[in-house]
Structure formats: C-alpha cells, structure tokens
Amino acid sequence: MGSDLATAPVSRVREAENALAGRAGDLVRPAVLALVGFGLVARLVLLGDRVSHFDEGRVGYWILEYVRTGDFQYRYIIHGPFVQHVDAALFPVLGPSDFTLRLPVAIIGGLLPLWLLCFRDHLRDEEVVAAAFFLVANPVLLYYSRFFRSTIPVAAFAFGAFACFVRFYDTRRPLYAHAAVALVALAFTAKENAAVYVLVWIGAAALLLDHELFRPRTAPTGVAWLRSWWERNVSGRDLGRWLSRFVGHALLSTLLFGAIIVFFYAPRSGTPGGVGLYNAFGNPGLFPEVFDTMIDDIYDGYDYWFGGATEVGEGKSLAAQYAEFLGGLLKVLGNYAAPLVAFALVGVLIERYATRARRNLVMVGFYWGVVSVLGYPLGTDIFGAWLAVNALVPLAIPAGVGVGYFYRRGREALLDDDRASVAVVGVVLLVALAQMGVVGASGVYLDDQSSENELVQYAQPGEGAREALDRIKVASGSDGTDVLVFGDQFVDGDTEATRTPACIKWFNTLPLPWYFGIYDSDVSCGKNQGELRDAVERDVPVIVADAEENETVAAVASGSEYERRTFKLRTSARTVVVLVHERVGKSASAGG
User: Fold this and answer.
1) Which of 401, 375, 332, 376 is nearest to 143 (CA)?
2) N or C: which end of the chain has fewer CB atoms below 10 A?
3) Considering the entire predicted model, what is its pTM?
4) Could you check whether the bond before residue 501 is cis, i.e. omega within 30 degrees of 0?
5) How far is 472 from 476, CA to CA, in rounded Å?
C-alpha cells in the first residue's frame, strides 16, 4: 500500500507524458493565449481608477484639442504620435476618460506575449510559456501597461519586429520581413527611442558574429565558417534573379515603412485648405508643404532627443545623475522584477556555459536587456520606473529559459522519486510566484498613487485627488462659472495662450486641464482677494487653489457654504486646496 502511494505521482506523470506525446506542442499556443487573456483582464480591471499622471494629462489634453479642432502636429516633447491618433479615434466612440485614454496601451501590453510564438523553433515549449508568464505578470510591465505612456507600445512593436525578423530568418518567407519593417515603423511612431532598439540589435548581432568567428561551432576556424556560409548562401545562386527579388521586396518594405511614418507624423488641419494630410488628397498641391512640415518636425524632434538637448539638474554632473538614475533603476529591478532578473541570469549562464549548442536568441535577449539597463539611465533627463520596461521585455527570453531549466530538473526529480530535489524546485518556483503576486497586487492596484511605491513617478497626484475631481465633475455644466482657479502659483492671467483655460499656469496645474476638458468645465481665474470674494459671493461651485493661498482662501470663505478638501498634485508636493460648495457635495452624494 505504502509503495503504491509513493509511486503514484510518478505513474501519473509518466501516463500524462505518454498521453501527450506528439501533442505537447499543441498545448503551447492555448497556454499562451490563456495567459494573454489573463493579462488583458489584469490590465483592464479598474483601468480608469487611478488619477492621471502629469504626462497622461498633458498628452490627453492635446488629444482632446485634436478631436475638437481637427488640427494635429507632431510635438516631440510628448513623444511619438501613435497613441494620439489611436485615442483621437476612440474618444468620439467611447468618450474621453482615464479608461479610454489608457485602453490602447493596456491592449498592446496584454497582447505582447503573442510574439513569443515566433520563437518556438528556438525555445522549448515550457520556456515559451514561462517567458509569456513574465510578460503578463511582471509588476513593472503590468503597471505601465495601465499607464498612458508610449513606453509599452514602443517596446511591444520593437519586440514584435524582432520576432518577425527571427521568423523570416527561419522560414525565408518575405511576409515576415514586411511585417517586421511595418512594426519597426510603428515603433518609430510610438516613441523616438525606437532608434535605440535598432542600434541594440545591430550591436547584439555584431557580438554574435564575433562569437561565431572566434569559436565557430560548425567549422574549424572563423575563416572556414565564412567560406562555408558563402558557399551555402551565395555560390551557385542565380544572383540576377535573387537580386531582382531582393530589390522588389526592399522597395515594397520601404514604401510600407514610409506610408506608416507619413500617416502618423504628417500634420492634420481642421480648416478647409489648411496644411494637412487629408486636405492634400483633395488638393495635391499641398503635399510638398505637408511633407516639408512633417520632415522639419521629425528633424527637430530627433535633434532634441538625440542631439544633447536634455539638461542635467542644477549643481549635478552627468556622472552623478547617471549614478543616481542607474541606482534607481537597479532598485526598481530588485524590488519589482527580482524573479525575472534572477531567472534571466540563470538562463543565460546555463545557455552560455552548460549547453553544447548555444542558442543565439537567448544571448540576444540577454545582451539587449543588459545594454538597456546600462544605457537608458544615461539617455534620459528624468527618472521613472518606466525605464525598466525597455530591459524587462527582452530579458523575459532568458528568464523563460531559466524557469524551463528548473521545470525540467523538477520533472526529472519527480520521475526519479527524488523528493528533496522536487521540494527545492517547488520552493524556488513558489517563492518567485508569491513575490510577483504580492508585489504586483500592492504596486499595481492597492498603492498605485503612493509615494512609497517606487513604480509611481513623482508627478503622480496623490491620494484624495479622485474625490475632489468627482466634485468638479458634478459641478460642471452649471450656469456660469463651474470652477475658479485662484492664486499666483496657479494663475498667470494670460488671455492669449493656445491652451484652455488660457489664464492658468498650465504646467503647474497638470493634470487638472485634462479633467477640465473631459468634464467640459467652465473655468475662470482669480489673482486677488477681490476676485476670490466675488466668486464666493456668487456661489461658484468649486474653487481650486495652491496650499500657499490657504490662509487667504480660509479667511475669504469663512462662514460660507463651502467644505474644504486637500490632495497632493504630486506624490509628495504641491498640496491643492479645493473648496466645494455645499450643494455640489449633496449632489455628489446623491449621485453616488
């Protein structure tokens, strides 16, 4: 009896392996699709709950203006135009909101693991599934898939392009090459650092070539390897026919790349006859000006991001800033991506030193990730945990290899009835899973606006902001002024600014203008006590002021029918005082 119980798990494993023999590969696709489904749900649930970050509000506002006016021009300071065009199409259908704003990024992030299916000729089944799990559940990737920023789209498009290039290498089917080029173009429309991805690929390819020439696996010397490659791929070919096909496909890919770039970067004009892409189709004479404007904008953007226009903070050297940013990035990786990084190290060490046939794909993923960790802190002007996304996506490949190694050792130990080894493997995998679950739940959902959360960037409004914004939403649509913005910190009195409302200090108040826009709030400004007192006497529904004006606001509003609320406009700075008229509070309570 005891013997039967001891051998039962082994028997079940062997029976399952026999039953699945020849069909194991069929389970990979359903497993990846199931993970993608889970990832989409994890990204969409409560997607609009967090108050918009400074950057989200800034870009969201300009999308509202694009929808309202029909005018668009590439603004490099808010990065590539891809998400702007997509949301401009979604806003009229779904309505502008935090949920709609983030929806494209969430979907792109959720679908990211699908590209791993292109690597099945290079990775074992369990490695593909493990890598997919990391792309789905890593807290950093999950958090920034729920954040309206182009970091996830550029990483996803670049990863997809790389996957299609690998698939083209495997199959020689031109369709994959064209798909890769299209995805590279989309990466460039998402964010300017797409150029960095291309450079990293070139560098990784050079390292692999050097490895092969230095210690070739299929030839006695590097020269012999080159000669063999030439004989296999060039000698005996009909070069004329090959060259004509190559030129044809190259031209097609070039046209595809150019069409995507033009579609996303070209200006639009809501004024009939204005310089815009759609107007040019009705008046082809506008095309030269449209192209000139687009090229000038692209040149200015890439000159800014890659021409040394970013600045180091006051009193801080470039080396000191790099050390600070690198330290911050390593801290994020240690606290929020430790399992992925640890398994990636295991995977690459096994691949490099414990296998007969090193797989180039695994090495490229590792090189790509390491260079991203070391390079991005040097090329950024502000720090955010989003920098880690650029490294974690490629590191998922060797991380999958690392998990696959433990899985195979555990399976072999189970078949050999080696319970100690099974326990060790089980503990390692369970600890990794638990760490990701606990950190993910806290960092992504429970404390997604907390200053203690390293995933939260400084310009994220803090706790309590949503309640105040809900009052502004309820107040909007009243007769006359809905919101008065008061004080020198928030008001400059400008009447000619292109932004709305023109009178506010726009950057000091972001993301409030985004909410004023989606709530269709009638906003006015006050700079002195007389204007504030007049607003109180007129029972303006909501008054917003910087905390520096707290005494003035309290004195003027004393004895009035206003309740006072406060929240941080940044995680730990710039407290906002919000006075909400009693009737607005009652309406909000009734509506809730």
Assistant:
1) 332
2) N
3) 0.92
4) yes
5) 6
| pLDDT for 590 | 54
Residue 233 identity (one-letter amino acid):
N
Domain residues of the chain, as ranges? 2-223+315-438, 465-591
Residues in the chain: 592
Cis before 377? omega within 30: no
Beta-strand pair 542-546/523-526: unpaired
End-to-end CA distance of the chain: 63
Sheet containing strand 523-526, edge to edge, reads 523-526, 483-486, 542-546, 575-581, 562-568
Residue 139 · residue 42 · CB < 8 Å? no
- Tokens at 19, concatenated: 């039953």
What pLDDT was estimated at residue 217?
A: 76
Show the tokens assigned to 174: 């031109």
What is the DSSP track for 504-563? B-HHHHTTHHHHHHHTT--EEEE-SHHHHHHHHHTT-SEEEEEGGGHHHHHHHHTTSSEE
Q: What is the rounded distance in angstroms from the CA atom of residue 149 to the CA atom of residue 58?
A: 11
Contacts of 517 (CB under 8 A, 6+ apart): 60, 61, 64, 96, 500
10-residue averages of pLDDT along the chain (592 residues) = 40 47 69 97 97 96 96 93 97 97 98 97 96 98 97 98 96 95 98 94 89 80 85 73 85 96 96 94 95 96 77 69 93 97 97 87 96 90 93 98 95 91 93 95 93 93 91 87 93 85 92 95 92 91 91 85 90 89 70 52
CATH architecture of the domain formed by 465-591: 3-Layer(aba) Sandwich (3.40)
Looking only at the bridges linking them, the beta strands covering 483-486 and 523-526 are parallel
Q: Hey, how many other C-beta atoms are within 10 angstroms of the C-beta on 241? A: 9
Predicted local confidence at residue 433, as pLDDT = 94
